[in-house]
Design goal:
heterodimer; A: alpha/beta; 4-stranded parallel beta sheet; 6 helices; 4 strands; globular; B: alpha/beta; Rossmann fold
């Protein structure tokens, strides 16, 4: 049996500096990469992707990706589709914030406690999508308002 | 009213130097030169957002990049800026030997010092650009 490369999911966050939701995308993606699903995910650098990074673009052509955007301009999702392939899943932080009834989340430079909780909630959503794409069974609590902090 | 200089950090998510570039942009635009600079999101700019483009077109801009690939500078160069002034975190760290930045979402103390040093260099560029009077 050949030793095939492990299937991973690429996470692309917008990291937008003009809105606190952009900071939420960053924090959520790093939490998934470092803590929640380190063996199943990689991050794709959006600036590099936009600047023509062939490694990032090739990955997104052949592996499933999740675009995580701060606002409905959806720069990460649109860039992924434009330069590689349509993302397998697309998450918009402002949508999650509405679903959670989230209040003010701080600034782009410093999220407040509500912002950190929102980042946990978004991280949970990324994990759900990652498991779905890799056809994994849920591994229990992943953080968020209702599920408790992991 | 004088037009603000657009500041575009790369905000790379894979390394501490990208995080330092992002933090440096905040230090510059919020603490050091709030009246002279404005952060513009690289992703918006490259994806053709009209408002972001208006902030950049025909004016001075500062790109703050974490690594040698210079994604922010490249993005600005394609967005109609009259002059792109480059600040490279990977160069700044050479001038501040001993700093060992770590972390991405939460930079360690050395990472924050590196961001401050980068912002200081960017502030000087902003001052020089304004002194030249080339920024309408």
């Amino acid at each position: 049996m050949p030793d095939l490369p492990r299937k991973k999911v690429g996470l692309i966050s917008c990291s937008g500096e003009e809105l606190p939701e952009g900071t939420v995308t960053r924090r959520a993606v790093r939490k998934v990469l470092e803590t929640l699903r380190p063996d199943d995910t990689v991050t794709l650098c959006l600036p590099l992707f936009l600047a023509g990074g062939e490694g990032e673009r090739s990955f997104a052509r052949f592996y499933p990706t999740i675009a995580i955007d701060g606002c409905d301009k959806r720069c990460a999702a649109r860039a992924t589709e434009k330069y590689s392939a349509k993302p397998a899943a697309s998450i918009v932080v402002t949508d999650i914030a509405k679903e959670c009834g989230c209040g003010a989340i701080g600034t782009a430079r410093r999220l407040n406690a509500e912002g950190l909780r929102l980042a946990d909630e978004v991280a949970g959503k990324i994990v759900e999508e990652t498991d779905r794409l890799l056809k994994k069974k849920p591994k229990g609590s992943v953080g968020g308002f209702d599920r408790g902090k992991s | 009213m004088k037009r603000k200089i657009a500041v575009v950090p790369c905000s790379g998510i894979g390394k501490s130097l990208g995080a330092a570039a992002r933090e440096a942009a905040f230090i510059l635009a919020e603490d050091l030169r709030p009246d002279a600079t404005k952060i513009v999101a690289l992703s918006l700019l490259v994806m053709g957002d009209e408002e972001a483009r208006r902030e950049v077109e025909g004016g001075e801009a500062v790109a703050i990049d974490g690594c040698k690939l210079e994604c922010a500078a490249k993005g600005l160069a394609c967005s109609g800026a009259a002059r792109v002034n480059k600040v490279a975190v990977f160069d700044v760290i050479r001038r501040h030997r001993g700093l060992k930045p770590e972390g991405v979402c939460d930079l360690n103390e050395d990472g924050l010092k590196l961001a401050r040093a980068t912002a200081d260099e960017a502030a000087k560029i902003v001052d020089d650009a304004n002194a030249e009077g080339g920024h309408a």
